[in-house]
Each structure stands twice: as structure tokens, then as C-alpha cells.
Amino acid sequence: MGFSGLIVQILNGFAEASSLFMIAAGLSIIFGVTRIVNFAHGSFFMIGAYVAYTVVERFGDPMWFWPGIIIAAVASALVGLMVELTLLRRIYRAPELTQLLATYAVMLIVQDLVLYLWGPVPLLGPRAPGLEGAVNILGRQFPTYSLFLIVAGPLTLAALWALVTRTRWGRLVRAATQDREMVSALGINQAWLFTSIFVLGAFVAGMGGALQIPREPASLEMDVHAITSAFVVVVVGGLGSLPGAFIAAILVAQVKAVCLWIGILEIGPFAISLSKFTIVVEFVVMAVVLIFRPYGLMGTRPALLRHTRNLTSSMLIAPLRARGWILAAIILVAFAIVPQLRGSFPYMPILMLEIIIMVMFATSLQLLMGPGGMHSFGHAAYFGLGAYAAAAIVGYWNLPLELALVVGVGGAVVGAIVLGWFSVRLSGVYLAMLTLAFAQIVWAVFYQFEGLAGGENGITGVWPEGLFGGRDAFYYLAVGCLIVSLAFLYRTLFSPFGYALRAARDSAIRAESIGMDVSRLQWQSFLLAASVAGIAGALYALSKGSVSPEILSASRSIEGLVMVVLGGEYAIGGGMLGAVVFVWLRDTIGYNAEYWRAVLGVITIFLLLVLPQGLASLLRFTESLKRAKE
Amino acid sequence: MTIRLKHALRGSMLGCALALTLSVSANAQDIIKIGEVSSFTNFPDHMGHYKNGMDLALDEINGAGGVDGKQLVFVTRDDKATAGDAIRAAEELVAREQVDAITGTFLSSVALAMNEWAKRNEVLFLATMSLSDKMIWQEGNRYGYRLRAGTFTQSAILAEKAAELGKKRWALVYPNYEFGQLAAENFKRMLTEAQPDVEFVSEHATPLGRIEAGGVAQAMIDAQPDAIFSVLFGGDLLKFVRAGTTQGLFEGREVLGLTTGEPENLEPLGADAPEGWWVTGYDWTNTDIPAHKKFLADYQERFGAHPGISAIMGYTTVKTMAAAFDKADSTETEAVVDAMAGLEVEMPWGTISYRSLDNQSTIGSFLGRTARGENGPVLVDAVYKNGEDYQPTEEMISKWRAATE
Question: What are the pLDDT digits (tens) for A358-410?
């Protein structure tokens, strides 16, 4: 401790901030212009680290570390170029979430590709030649390389800043950030501009990865860790703002540094370990900043697109007609007879139960995404809260299952009342990121506090007993919940509330001027969606006999998004279709394939390219074809 | 054309879907089928060794005529490191593959969920890689067994060593979840019992996989400890060792590392490997246990690499199952579960047995010092510590287990 200790911790914080900024800078530029939330950005960072490691390894001389940084950055940029040309370019006109899903698929593929090329063992690179040791600062050994990083961060900022403000290319980038349509109307080749930005972003990320190898091993988890931190920094700083990202990186890193310096904080009789707090510190910073500054520290209200939203006919949602009802009835009968087939197909009811639960989860998310126009990245929070509430009822207090379902809904709704209230104050990507932050905070609380709900181990002994204790009885209970939930969501969609929600989505300003309370409408839709997610979570807990924090994880939220986008966010039954296909694919590929992530990624990309509006458009497509024939 | 293509694709996809979902495999009379559910794709650095170990044991057993003339077959499933998927995999294995027992699991949350599921469905479950003690004690049940030496045993081995060292000021660093928290708690309690004047001057619970190594090392230096206890592993360990070495954290201090001596954790350190740390793990180089010599030779010949601790676990898992079904002389679950109690199994480190008290195997761990060998870091002065000697008292265990059974 002591004051000099604080100074050294803060220096450390600056080194961390430089690393964070390197990952975040590219992401910020890419988002500013293309509006793509690029999940694959962490992959470029990871590729940079692995390539830099290999360069040194191959040439056998640590001196190769320095040229290796450039080689790694170029390699990352080339991968970025390939991704942009072959994939993203084809889907710029698709709904924005389709692009996000595509980059997510790229991330899955790169993960397995790196596993295949470099193997599973984390690779510890060389120390930076010339900067191996430490210098004496205030009586402490401070790594020389960290000093180098402290300088490298601002230099990168300066270089990027000069590029953006002093060159013609930079002027175009800034113009496109403000008004994409105008830029293209003036005859600028947008495709070329987008490609160059994407390549630059990948280059900087690759460089950032390479610069990390003297400090941390190249490992398969790098991409996920990098992307989550980068999201936080970019959002806190304000999307598209480079200085904002730099300041945000410093803020996040310094809060962590101070937590480490303080160690254990004693307030009266309570000793709070701030080192434990580092697990969520970045998400707490993000939540606080977004609550007080909805567009980040240096961000501005997003430039209005020509229309408040790119309205297309595909966003209209029509009630089911005869054909739709018949299809729904067929599906229902199919669900109902599955347990009767247990004798011949013993696994079908098991998989089907999982599908039913995920259909409820995805469809509830779809209410927020499609009609609500709010892309929640933290829907697992409600699923998880429902599951934990139900698990506590059955596992801790041995109360009946019917009560558990009710309490499950209650738990999720209470969560939504709080989290939703803050979330609906924002929109677009900021809303998405705030929901993600909240979900991560909830996850961290359940994950690390052993006393609260079993910590990482969760709650066990959560089995259905009584009337619905039997396997088939529980299955039919789930089918019953599914029908009620779907009917409820469908009814909501075509009630005045549902239409008002869509009006708020299509033009918040106009909706406000005719007297609708937009944020209240959206808040209410959060509660409705959470209640269905909560019952799904409760059923999930009861079907597995236990819950653990993984149920709240970001990856479950993202899987929900994938299901909805895969199925089609604006189509009735889109969430359902997406959930069925996704769960089944993941199950079938996932059990045995060594590289299931890559396979899942390739299939996802294939489906996106063939059906950018989601699987549900298949149905609509044949319908319109028939109409054309008539 | 494209429309037809889409239709064709749709048709064929549906066909595949049905074929894969509906396929049922018959359980032949002359095989013993066991389902292995583990995090193969999430922890490939461990699971590669583990699979090798399984394959080696399977070939030995089946090559020698199997178990009572029946071939032993393992059907593997990936649990993606989530409890929900693991349970579904187990249900699938029992329903469709009709396996006679379930083995595996890596994370403790998954092991606990599986343990609970096994109890409810009355299926024999052998947890193999998990370190969580809760599954055999507070949540112990008739059907759940565990192979690996758990958190308690490993902490106890190191706490004993720590007491010998007689250092007063200790700094702790551990990953911030159940395993790390419990290891630190056990260590603190046991060391305080043995050495009441001990002081814990610094304690860092770091987010798993995301340690801020420079800052943590600095904060530990500032606390001026005499010795350090680390529960870090994987990428966190590598980052911590590199930062700590540069900043002079380890100079003149004793360091104890839980699981640091497992080849999976030690070897990635390469030239950075610290010298003289007291660690638990697996010494594959110097051990002169006869059974181990044969195992090592066979393993190296077959895979062209040396085994990690996961290889020992994979190998012993298969040997355990073979011994259990052999002793039970039946594939009835109740008979096999009865056979598991007190079962003795020959494995590379000697003979272990499964205690009827708490279903835990008596497998132990090596305690040694890290050193730099010719081909990478190794353990020296390693002693095999029998797991039986580092357990809570019988009364404690009986009390815990009585609550759930």
C-alpha cells in the first residue's frame, strides 16, 4: 500500500489501458462507418497474437518480435479483407442484426481454425527484445515493456487521429460516419470505403494482439476476453469516437488499478474485497456511464438516418391466416404425440423438451427485437433469474412446483422492472450494450458469491415432484406453458399495445407527438418478455434438476439472438423456427464433432446468405411465389 | 434453379434431421457400454491427454479379452462446459445408447449437476476430472463416485508443507470461483491450525482467465509477504509468473502452487518456469513406481508424447469401470454400485481403492519442487502423497453425507 504503491499501480493501469485501446480502436472505427457490431474483432486480435508468436518461433531469434508485430498486423488485415469481401459485402443491406450474426459465425470459425492450426496449449511468447527487464520506479521493479506500452497507446491514437483528420480518406470516413447516404450520393465508392475501414480495423487489432505476447500467452480464450473488453471501452467512450475510446480505456483500467491497490476495504465491521470486484468492474463502469451519459463519454446522439428507420415491408407483421393456423395446429399435435413415441425414439422427448423451452425463450426475446425494435443482448438474465427463483423454491424450501413456476415468472419480472427501466432510456446499440452489462453483472453476482445461491456450483436438487413429477407429465406441463406463452405473446402482438409498440419502434418521435409514452411502452414490453423468459427458465431448471450461473451467461443471451435472427425477427413463428433449428443443429453436431463450432458457423453463414431475412422467409417466399402465379 | 436448389436443400436437410434424431442403436449383449461426458472442446489441452489415456486402457482391456468376455465400449459426448448440456447428453446416452454407467465431467458445476441427476435416475456416475469436494460430501449420494484428488486433499498436502516452512506472512492468489475460493479457505484454516501465529497479509481473487497480472504482482509485493500460495492455472498462471518474475515478486520468497505441477499447467511455462516452487501435480520423469514405468513406455510409444495428469485420469477411469463390472459380474446398476464400494483398482501410481465412506478414491498427488529440465520444466524431489492421508475426519464426512442420504 502507501502512496508510492498507488503511483505504480496507476502506471500499470496506463499500460493496461494502452492494450485495451488497441483492441477497441479498430472496433470503434468499423462501427462508426459501417454500423456493424463486429464480433469477429476479437478473432483478429487473437490471430495477431498467434501469428506474432509463430514468427518468432519460426525464425528462432527473439529479435523477430519487432518485425513480427507488423507481419501479424498484416496477417490480421488480410483475414479481415477476406471476411469483408466474401461475406460482409454481401449483407450490408440485410437487417443490422444479420451482420452481427455473420461476424459471430466468423468468430466461431476462427476459433476452431486457430485450434486446428496452433493446437490447444496456450503459447507463451518471448519477452520483448531490449525491454526484457524492469526499471526502478519509487523503489519498485516496473517492467520496461509496460513503459513501452504506455507510450505505444497514445502513439497509436495519434497516428489514427492524423489518418482520420488529415487525409482525404479520413475525411470520407468522417463524412460516412455522419451521413452514409449523402456520401454515396456524391459518388464515393462506398464498397471500397467499407473494405478499407474494415481492413484498417483488423490491422490495428492484429497489432494489439501481437503487442500482448510478451505479457500474456496466445490462447484460445483471447478472442472472447478481448471482444467483451473492447465492447465496453467502445461503448463507454462513445461509438465511433477514437479519443472517447482512449479515455474510456484509461477509465476502465484505472478503476481496476485502484481496486487492486486498495485490496480489502474495511467499512465498519464489513470487509469488502475489492479484488473480487475486478470480475465485474468494467461492466459496472459501463452501466454507470450509460445511465448518466446515454451516448458514452464522447459520443453524440447518433446521426439521424434519412428515415427514422429503414422501413421495409418485411417489418410489417400480419396476423396468421388460415394456412398459418393449420400449420400451428400441426406443430402442436406433433409436440403432443412425441412422448407416445418414447418406445421407438427414446431420445425424441428429451430433445423436444429442450426445444420447447428454447422456443419460449427465443419467442419472448423476439417480442423485444421484432415488434419492440430493442436488441437485448442480455435476455439470459431473465431466463436465469426465473430459473434461480424456481430453483430456490424447490431446492431450498421444498415447496411445490406450481409455486416455483409462478415465482420464476416473478423473479424474472422483478429483474425486468429494474433493468428494463434503465435500458429503455437508450436505444440501438447503446441499449444492447446496457442490457449486456446488466446481464453480466447479474451473472458475476451469482458466479462468485457462494453464499447467495451456491456460487459457481449453483443450486441442486431441483426436481419436479407431485402431479407433474413424472417424465411425461412434466413434458405436457411444458407444452401447456408453451401454448399459454405463445398465445399470450400473439395476443399482445395484435392488441392495441402491440400496435403502439410497433409505432414506437417505427417512429418514436411521431408516437410521442400523438401522446404515447414510448419508454413506458417499451418498459412494459420488457416485463412481458421477461415473464415468458422466466417461465422458460423455471422449466429449464426443473428439467435439469439444478441451476448454475452458466444459465445467465452472455453466450446464452447471444444464442437467443442467433435463434431469433436465424428464424427471422419480423416473422410470426420466427423465434420458434430459429430455436428448433438451432437447438437441433447444436445437439446433433455438438455431441461428437471435434470442430462443432466451425461447422455451426459455416451453416449459419450459409443460411444467412441464402435467407438473409431468416428461415421464416422460406414460408413467405413460397406464398408470394404462388400469388405471383395467380 | 435457385428455387429448386433451395427446395432440394430443405428436403435433404429435413431428411438428415430425421435420420439423425431418430436413429436408434441396439445394445448388443456382448458389450459393456459406458457413456463419457466431458468438456472435450472447451478444455482441449486437458482432454487430448485424457482421451489418449482412455484409448490406451481400452485397448489393453479389450485386447486381453475384455471384461468377462464382454468388450468394453465408451461412447463420448461433449458437454460444452455447461451443466444443462451435460444432463441432456447423459439422458441421451441412457435413453438411446442404453449405457450402463456415466463417467467424466470437468467443471465442478457440471459434476454436481450430474451427481444430482445420477441420484435421481439411479445411474452409476464416476466423476473423473472435477476437483469439487461438495459432490462427495455435502451432496454425496450412493450413485456418485469421484476419482481425482479433490481440492481439500491438495490444499491439505500444501498446508502441511507450508507449516514445515514456518513462514509468517503469507499472500494468496486464486481464481475467483468455488474452486479457488475453497482452496484458499482450506489452506488458510489448516495452516492456522498448524501454525497459529500465521498472518495472511494479502489476498487476491482474480477473474478466471483475466488476471491483471502486473497489478496483482505489484500489490502482493507491497504487502511484503514471506511466502505465496497460488491456485492459478492455465493462462492466468503464465501471466502471473511472467509479471511476477519481471517485477521481482518471487525473489527470496517461498511459493506454493496448487496443481502447478501438473504437466498441463507447468509445461506451457517453458523457459519461464520458476525454480523451487513447492507444487502439487504429477511427476512423470523420475517416478520409479513399477506400474508407472510400463504405462509411460506404452504411452510414449503409442502417442509419441509424454502423459499429462489428465492421461492418468482417463486411463484410470477406464480401468475403474473394467474392475467394477468385473467385480459385479453383472451390468445391473445396483450390483455395479455395490461393487464400487471398496473397489481396488491398479493404476500407474499404484493401487487405489474407492472408499465406502464417501465414494472418493484414495488417489493422491505428487508434491515436488519445480525445476528446469533439459526438455522443459519438470518436478524434482517429488513424493507421492496418498490421498487417504489427507482427508477430513470420518465424523465430519458422515455428518455431511447424512444430511443428504
Answer: 999 999 999 998 888 888 888 999 999 999 999 888 878 878 888 888 888 99
List Cβ neighbours of B116 (8 Å cut-off, separation of 6 or more).
A460, A461, A545, A546, B139
pLDDT digits (tens, 9 = 90+) for B338-392: 999 999 999 999 899 999 888 999 999 999 999 998 888 999 999 999 988 999 8
> Domain spans of chain B?
31-150+289-363, 152-287+367-389
Chain segment A166-213, per-residue pLDDT in tens: 999 988 888 887 777 788 888 888 888 889 999 999 999 999 999 999
Reading the block at residue A314, the C-alpha cell is 418485411
| pLDDT computed for residue B5 by the predictor | 43
Instruction: Spell out which residues of chain B touch residue A351, defining contact as CB-CB under 8 Å.
Output: 21, 88, 92
Q: How close is the nearest chain B Cα to the Cα of A589, in Å?
A: 10
Among A12, A209, A100, A250, residue whose Cα is nearest residue A608 = A100
Radius of gyration (C-alpha) of chain A in whole angstroms: 25
**Among all residues of chain A, which has the CA nearest to that of B92?**
A347
DSSP character at residue A40: T
Considering the domain B31-150+289-363 in this protein, what is its CATH number?
3.40.50.2300
Which set of grid coordinates corresponds to residue A201?
480495423
Burial class (CB in 10 A: 0-12, 13-18, 19+), A588: middle
The CATH code for residues B152-287+367-389 is 3.40.50.2300
- Of B403, B400, B384, the closest CA to residue B392 belongs to B400
Q: Between chains, do B109 and A278 touch, taking CB under 8 Å as contact?
A: no
Q: Which of A33, A65, A616, A62 is nearest to A320 (CA)?
A: A616
Q: Which residues of A touch B263 (CB under 8 A)?
A: none
Element (H, E) at B108: helix B108-121
B317-346 residues touching A, CB cutoff 8 A: none
Q: Do domains B31-150+289-363 and B152-287+367-389 have the same CATH topology?
A: yes
So what's the pLDDT on residue B9? 45
Looking at beta carbons, which residues of chain A come within 8 Å of B77?
591-592
Q: Is the separation of the CB atoms in B68 and B326 below 8 Å?
A: yes
For the domain covering A3-292, report its CATH number: 1.10.3470
C-alpha B270: how far from its chain's center? 23
- Among the partner-chain residues A13, A345, A546, the one whose CB lies closest to the CB of B112 is A546
CATH 1.10.3470-classified regions of chain A = 3-292
DSSP state of A123: B
Q: What is the mean pLDDT of residues B264-281?
A: 92
Cell numbers for A367, please give them. 417480442
ipTM: 0.85
Q: Is B343 in contact with B236 (CB distance < 8 Å)?
A: no
**CB-based contact A549:A280 (threshold 8 Å):** no
Residue A177's closest CA among A387, A32, A274, A322?
A32
* B207 secondary structure, DSSP code: P
